[in-house]
Amino acid sequence: MYLSPPGYGEMFSSLGYSSLVERARSGESRKDLAAAIPASLIASVGAVGSKAEVLARIAEFHAAGADHVGVVPPTAEDPCGARLLAELGRR
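The chain above was modelled as a monomer; its predicted structure follows.
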C-alpha cells in the first residue's frame, strides 16, 4: 500500500524499485505486489533481523540524521515483536 502514494512511491523509485511503483500505480493487486516485493526493499527502509542487527540498523538511521526512529512489529500479536520492543525499551 506504500508503493503508490506520492512521496512514498518516489522514495521507493529512488531506491531502485520504480518497476514496483509503476505496477502499484497501474492498479496491480496488493496480493501480487506483496509477492513481488524483494527482501532487499524491506531491508533498505527498515530494520530486520536479530536484536543486534536491528540495533545496528537503528544506529545507522540515527547516524544518517534521523531524530526519531519508529519501531513497529509486523503484527500486533507477534510474540517476537513484543520481545524486541521490550528489549529495545531497556536501551
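The longest helix spans residues 51-63.
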